[in-house]
Amino acid sequence: MVLGGDEPTGSLVRPYAVTRGRTRPQLEIALEALVETTARGRSGQFLGGREQKVIVNLCGGRLQSLAEIAARMEVPLGVARVLVADMAADGLLAVHEPTGFDADGGDGSVGTELLERVLSGLRRL
Amino acid sequence: MNSPADTSRVTSAKIVIAGGFGVGKTTLVGSVSEITPLTTEAIMTSASEGVDDNNLVPDKATTTVAMDFGRITIDQDLILYLFGTPGQTRFWFMWDELVRGAIGAIVLVDTRRLADCFSVIDFFEHRKLPYLVAVNCFDGKQLHDLNDIRDALQISHDVPVMYTDARNRESTKQVLIKLVEYVLSMRRTRTVGVH
């Protein structure tokens, strides 16, 4: 448990301080949803705190899931979710929600194709 | 790596790695993950239940639940995550989020503490999440007959039960492959059944 650690930022002591106390995100984001910095985010032309800059840098290279952002920033998942949702609403980040395996109603072919891709990827490992 | 250009098809998937405390979940994740397993934490408070008020910012009476996870890049626009469940099964609040949209689960079992996974199996069966049972052989010894383990766990004969060595990349890979094959076969059976 990292809460209460002596991190110089102090942001972990009161975990929701960086969200100004908000615990409810503007957007529900799955743990494994992939986050990517947009061109606007990369331009650096926005007003944001330290956390926003860290996230923009983190997701400017390879895609990162919400869980990775939270883990690498050492903030609770809920905090990362509020921050990412705000930044997505401001056009700084793009959030790619998982497709899901049963979301395709009908014959389930989208989910099946995705599973087959996962399977062949695992076999190639 | 991923080019920022065409990411319209970018998506992710996850597999849940469950089992009792100390059974080797993080070891299993680490054996096949392309990153050193990371830990993410969730905080359960009354405030996360929908209260949104600066005056109620939680700093007391919170429960922190940690989950370890790893990552496998399947191809440029598909990333698979392996999420270990929190060690303590009493933190069920996190499990709903973990299983939502998951491909399925691997229940990692230590035959010396079989009972540790009863509640986990109940949970997956209740939530209709496909799972398989992987018996972790800590010292490479396969001491038990898999059918005995199946009987002890009282699981259906359809559910795959197999040995694994959570430390071994190839062994973990085979378990993951088996799970995805199982899920695919279930889907095909279901489709045939419907038409």
Query: What general form of chain B does the structure show?
Result: globular
Strand numbers in spatial order across the main sheet of chain A: 2-1-3
List the chains of the largest interface with their residue counts: A-B, 51 and 58 residues
Q: What share of the residues of chain B lie within helices?
A: 25-40%
CATH architecture of chain A: Orthogonal Bundle
Query: What structural category do the secondary elements of chain A indicate?
Result: mainly alpha
Largest sheet of chain B: 7 strands, mixed
Low-confidence stretches of chain B: 1-5, 46-55
> According to CATH, what is the topology of chain A?
Arc Repressor Mutant, subunit A
Helix content of chain A: 40-55%
CATH superfamily of chain B: P-loop containing nucleotide triphosphate hydrolases
Shape of chain A: elongated
**What is the strand tally of chain B?**
7
Q: What is the domain total for the residues of chain A?
A: 1
Organism (chain B): Glycomyces rutgersensis
Family (chain B): Belongs to the GPN-loop GTPase family.
InterPro entries (chain B): Gliding_Motility_GTPase (IPR052705), Gpn (IPR004130), P-loop_NTPase (IPR027417)
Keywords (chain B): GTP-binding, Hydrolase, Nucleotide-binding
Defining key terms:
heterodimer; A: 125 residues; mainly alpha; Arc Repressor Mutant, subunit A; 3-stranded antiparallel sheet; 5 helices; 3 strands; disordered N terminus; B: 195 residues; alpha/beta; Rossmann fold; 7-stranded mixed sheet; 27% strand; DUF742 (chain A); DUF742 domain-containing protein (chain A); nucleotide-binding (chain B)
Question: Mind explaining what this structure looks like?
Answer:
The complex is a heterodimer of chains A (125) and B (195). Chain A has 125 residues and is mostly helical. Chain A contains 5 helices and 3 strands. The longest helix of chain A has 16 residues. Chain B has 195 residues and is α/β, with parallel strands linked by helices. Chain B has a single domain, classed as Rossmann fold, CATH 3.40.50. Chain B is built from 5 helices and 7 strands. Chain B has a 7-stranded mixed beta sheet with strand order 2-3-4-1-5-6-7, sandwiched between helices. In chain B, strand 3 and strand 4 form a beta hairpin. In chain B, helix 1 packs across helix 5. The interface between A and B is large, with 51 and 58 residues.
